[in-house]
Automatic annotation (TrEMBL), chain A:
Its main location: membrane. It is a peripheral membrane protein. It is found in: Cell inner membrane. One of its GO terms (molecular function) is ATP hydrolysis activity. Belongs to the ABC transporter superfamily. NCBIfam families: oligo_HPY. It holds the Pfam family oligo_HPY. This is ATP-binding cassette domain-containing protein. InterPro entries: AAA+_ATPase, ABC_transp_ATP-bind, ABC_transporter-like_ATP-bd, ABC_transporter-like_CS, Oligopep_ABC_C, P-loop_NTPase. GO terms for biological process: peptide transport; transmembrane transport. Residues 266-287 are annotated as: Disordered.
Length: 361, 345
C-alpha cells in the first residue's frame, strides 16, 4: 500500500447522488439521497472496503467513483484528474483502468453469449485483434482465474455459482484494469466457494498490483480481505479506519452496533447483547443533524441539530460523531477466544493434505 | 481422542442425552423425488427437546429445506418420504392423514421461512391473518382473536402495534414483516417451531434483533426450535445441538461445544476453516476443493469422497457408519479422527 501522503489513485470529493424527486412550481417530492456529500481517497495498492446496511449507498458510491453514473454534485478524481472534465477519449481509457465485478456477473448480460464472448467483449471493444490473438487472450484470462480454455465455448448456465464468479472476474480483468471494484462479489456464494473466490481475488491483486475496492455486507470477509474500511450509514461515511482498529476499537456508535451484531463463530464467545433498535430510516427523509440519532444510544440534543463532519482522528482514521471521544470504548468487544487446539490441528492436516493432492510433487 | 470408538448401532446422528422426552424425534428420514437418481435427503435423524434449539447447518442444496418441508408435510406429491418423525411422543408427522397434519400446522408445529411473503398473504392485513389462524385452530371469537393478534405484535416488539394490525405486508419493512410472520407462527403457542433461514435475507443488525427475539420467546414459552442455517456464526450463537448436513446426509452431530471444539468430520473441519474469522488475519482461507456432486454423480460410499483430501478406495465404495466421539457426538467418517490417518492403516 502506498504511504499516506502519496496522491490517491481514486478520490471522491463531496460526492452526492440523488434519485428521483420532482421540483414543480408549488410542490416538491423528496429525492432519495443515496449518497450524501461523501469524500473518500482510495490509496494505490490498498484494499478498501465499504460496509453498511443495505440501502446505505455503497453500490451507488462505487458506481459514481467508477464513472458508471453521473453524480448530482461533487467530483471524482482519477490519478489526480477530474473525471467529469475528461474528453471522450480520456473517459474511454478510464473505463479500461477501472474494472467492476458484480454479485451476479450475468444479470445484465445476454444469456446466449458464450463464455469466450463474455470474457472477450471488453477487449474487442477497445482493440482490433486477429481471431487467433483473441482466442489466446481469452484462454490466458480463463487460466488466470482458474478455469480451462475449453470453458470458453460453453454458456454461463452450465457453470456453478463459484465458476460463474470466476468468469465475471475474468471479464473484469480483460481490459487490464489498475483498480477493481467488487460489488458484493462473494455474497451469494456458499462459504467454501466464497473462500476460493476471496483467495483468487487476493492472488490477482498481488500478481497484477491491483487496487481493490470491496463492497460487502459480510463482515468476516471484510476483516479478512481489507486494509481499511469505510462504514456507511444513510448515504454518508460515518467512520473510516484501518481494519484491525475498526474491529477492535470501533469509535462511531453505529460501527459499534454493527460489529456487536455480527455472530461470532465460537460458542464460548456467546455474550448478552443489546441489539440496535429499529430500522434504518428512509433515505428520502433522513433524520436531521446526525442521520443516526434516531437509533443512537448516546444521542443528545445537539445530535438532532448539527450534522457531525467526518473528522480526522489519531491512528489514520476518521469519525463523524460529536461525542466519539467520550463514547470511545463503549463498543470494544472482548476479542473472540482462539479456536480449540483439536480444530487447529485438524485444519492444518486438512490443508496440508489438500495442498498435496492439488500439487502432487 | 486417540482411538476411534466402535461403531454405534443406529446409522443416524444422535444428540446429547436430552433433559426430557423429545418434542420431536426423527429417524431415518429419506426423501427421493420421482425420477431423481439419488435421494436428496438420506437416512437423517435427530431430536430436539422442549426449550432447546437444534441447528441444521450446511451449504445450499444439501437438503435442509427439503428436511423441514418433509416434517411439515409441505413437499410436492413427486416426493417419496420415508422414515419416522415422532412428535410429542405420539403421532408420526410423516404418517398422518393430510387433514390432521394441516390441523397441526400453524398450531402445535409452526414454520418460519426466509421470505415472509411465503406465509403472509399480500391481500390481507397483518391483524386479520394472525386472527384468522387463531380462530381456525383455537376456535376463538373474532374479538378474542384480534386481541391475541395485537398481543402477539406487541410481543415481537413491533412499534405502534395497534396501528400495524391494519397494515398490509407491503407497508412494512423487511425486518417488520419477518416479525409479523414470527408473531403469526407463534400465535397458537406451538410446541415446535421450524425456522428455515429466518434471518438470511436480513442485515446483520436486524438479524441480531430477530435472533434475540426468538431466544426470548423460546425462554418464555419453552418452545423447541429447529433452526436451519448456512451460517456457522449463527449456529455458535444460538444452538444447543447441531447437525451438519452434506449432500443430503447428516455427517456430524452433537452438542454445539463438541462440534466447534472437537470437529471430527473432514467436511465440518473444512467448512469451519473456510469461514473468515472475525479476529486478526492469520493467513489464507482454507478451501474445500471442487463443488457438491450432482445427484447423478453421487459416489456410492461417502458422499464427501469426491472433495475430501483423506478419501481412499473404501471411502468411495462404502458408506461410513456413524461412530461416537463423546457424549451425543457422532460423525460418519471412516478416518476420523484424522490425526490417525495413514498412521496405523
Ligand atoms: N437507480 C436507482 N433509482 C432510484 N433509487 C435508487 C437507485 N439505485 C439506488 N437507489 C436507492 O438509493 C439508496 C442506496 O442504494 P444502494 O447504493 O444500492 O445501497 P447499498 O448498495 O448500500 O445497498 C437506496 O435507498 C436505493 O433504494
Ligand atoms: N421439488 C423438488 N423437486 C426436485 N428436486 C428438488 C425439489 N426441491 C428440492 N430439490 C432438490 O433437493 C436438493 C436439496 O434442496 P434443499 O433442501 O432446498 O437444499 P437447502 O435448503 O439445503 O439449500 C437440491 O438438490 C434440490 O435441487
Ligand atoms: S453524533 Fe450523536 S447521534 Fe450521532 S452518532 Fe454521535 S452521539 Fe450518536
Ligand atoms: S469417509 Fe473418507 S471421504 Fe468421507 S469424510 Fe471420511 S475420510 Fe473423507
Ligand atoms: Mg449494493
Ligand atoms: Mg434452503
Amino acid at each position: 500500500m502506498s504511504p499516506v501522503g502519496e496522491p490517491p489513485i481514486l478520490e471522491a470529493v463531496a460526492l452526492s447522488k440523488h434519485f428521483g424527486g420532482r421540483r414543480r412550481l408549488f410542490a416538491a417530492s423528496a429525492p432519495v439521497r443515496a449518497v450524501d456529500g461523501v469524500s473518500l481517497r482510495v490509496r494505490r495498492g490498498e484494499t478498501l472496503a465499504l460496509v453498511g446496511e443495505s440501502g446505505s449507498g455503497k453500490s451507488t458510491l462505487g458506481r459514481l467513483m467508477l464513472d458508471l453514473m453521473p453524480p448530482t454534485a461533487g467530483d471524482v478524481l482519477y490519478e489526480g484528474r477530474n473525471v467529469g472534465a475528461l474528453p471522450a477519449a480520456g473517459r474511454r481509457a478510464l473505463r479500461r483502468d477501472l474494472g467492476i465485478v458484480f454479485q451476479d456477473p450475468f444479470a445484465s448480460l445476454n444469456p446466449r453469449m458464450s463464455v469466450a464472448d463474455i470474457v472477450g467483449e471488453p477487449i474487442w471493444l477497445h482493440e482490433a485483434l486477429s481471431r487467433a490473438d483473441r482466442r489466446a487472450r481469452v484462454a490466458a484470462l480463463l487460466r488466470r482465474v482458474g478455469l480451462r480454455p475449453e470453458h470458453g465455448d460453453r454458456y454461463p448456465h452450465e457453470f456453478s455459482g463459484g465458476q460463474r464468479q470466476r468468469i465475471g472476474i475474468a471479464r473484469a480483468l480483460a481490459s487490464a484494469p489498475k483498480l477493481l471494484l467488487g460489488d458484493e462479489p462473494v455474497s451469494a456464494l456458499d462459504v467454501s466457494v466464497q473462500a476460493q473466490i476471496v483467495n483468487l481475488l487476493e492472488d490477482l491483486k498481488a500478481e497484477l498490483g491491483l487496487t481493490l475496492v470491496v463492497v460487502a455486507h459480510g463482515l468476516g470477509v471484510i476483516r479478512h480481505m481489507s486494509d481499511r474500511v469505510a462504514v456507511m450509514y444513510l448515504g454518508r461515511i460515518v467512520e473510516l479506519a484501518p481494519v484491525d482498529a475498526l474491529f477492535e476499537t470501533p469509535l462511531h456508535p453505529y460501527s459499534q452496533a454493527l460489529l456487536a451484531s455480527v455472530p461470532v463463530p465460537n460458542p464460548r464467545a456467546r455474550r448478552p447483547r443489546a441489539p440496535l433498535e429499529g430500522d434504518m430510516p428512509s433515505p428520502t427523509r433522513p433524520p436531521p443533524g446526525c442521520h443516526f440519532h434516531t437509533r443512537c444510544p448516546h444521542a443528545r440534543p445537539l445530535c438532532r441539530e448539527l450534522s457531525p463532519p467526518l473528522d480526522a482522528v489519531p491512528g489514520d482514521r476518521a469519525v463523524a460523531c460529536h461525542f466519539w471521544a467520550e463514547i470511545a470504548g463503549a463498543g470494544a468487544g472482548a476479542p473472540a477466544p482462539a479456536p480449540s487446539a483439536a480444530f487447529t490441528r485438524r485444519l492444518t492436516l486438512f490443508e496440508a493434505k489438500a495442498a498435496a493432492a492439488a500439487d502432487p510433487a | 481422542m486417540a482411538e476411534p470408538a466402535p461403531p454405534m448401532p443406529a446409522p443416524t446422528i444422535s444428540q446429547a442425552p436430552l433433559p426430557q422426552a423429545p418434542v420431536l424425534n426423527v429417524e431415518g428420514l429419506t426423501v427421493r423425488f420421482a425420477g431423481a437418481p439419488a435421494a436428496v435427503v438420506e437416512d437423517v435423524g435427530f431430536s430436539v427437546a422442549r426449550g432447546r434449539t437444534l441447528a441444521i447447518v450446511g451449504e445450499s442444496g444439501c437438503g435442509k429445506s427439503v428436511t423441514s418441508l418433509a416434517l411439515m408435510g409441505l413437499l410436492p406429491p413427486a416426493a417419496r418420504v420415508a422414515g419416522r418423525a415422532v412428535f410429542a411422543g405420539g403421532v408420526d408427522l410423516l404418517d398422518m392423514p393430510p387433514r390432521a397434519r394441516a390441523d397441526l400446522r400453524g398450531d402445535r408445529v409452526a414454520m418460519i421461512f426466509q421470505e415472509p411473503m411465503t406465509s403472509l398473504n399480500p391481500a390481507f392485513t397483518i391483524g386479520d391473518q394472525i386472527a384468522e389462524s387463531v380462530v381456525r385452530h383455537r376456535g376463538a371469537t373474532a374479538r378474542d382473536a384480534r386481541a391475541r393478534a395485537l398481543a402477539m405484535l406487541d410481543l415481537v416488539r413491533i412499534p405502534a402495534a395497534a396501528e400495524r394490525l391494519d397494515a398490509y405486508p407491503h407497508e412494512m419493512s423487511g425486518g417488520m414483516r419477518q416479525r409479523a410472520m414470527i408473531a403469526m407462527a407463534l400465535a397458537n403457542d406451538p410446541a415446535l417451531v421450524i425456522a428455515d433461514e429466518p434471518t438470511t435475507a436480513l442485515d446483520v443488525t436486524i438479524q441480531a434483533q430477530i435472533l434475540a427475539l426468538l431466544a426470548g420467546l423460546q425462554r418464555d414459552t419453552g418452545t423447541a426450535v429447529i433452526l436451519i442455517t448456512h451460517d456457522l456464526g449463527v449456529v455458535a450463537e444460538v444452538a444447543d445441538d447441531v447437525v451438519v448436513m452434506y449432500a443430503g446426509r447428516a455427517v456430524e452431530g452433537g452438542p454445539v461445544s463438541a462440534l466447534f471444539d472437537d470437529p471430527q468430520h473432514p467436511y465440518t473441519i473444512g467448512l469451519m476453516g473456510a469461514m473468515p474469522a472475525l479476529g486478526r488475519r492469520t493467513g489464507r482461507l482454507a478451501t474445500i476443493p471442487g463443488a457438491v456432486p450432482l445427484p447423478a454423480d453421487m459416489p456410492p460410499g461417502c458422499r464427501f469422497a469426491t472433495r475430501c483430501p483423506f478419501a481412499d478406495a473404501r471411502c468411495a465404495a462404502e458408506r461410513p457408519p456413524v461412530r461416537a466421539f463423546g457424549a451425543g457426538h457422532g460423525a460418519a467418517c471412516w478416518h476420523a479422527p484424522i490425526e490417525g490417518f495413514g498412521v496405523a492403516a
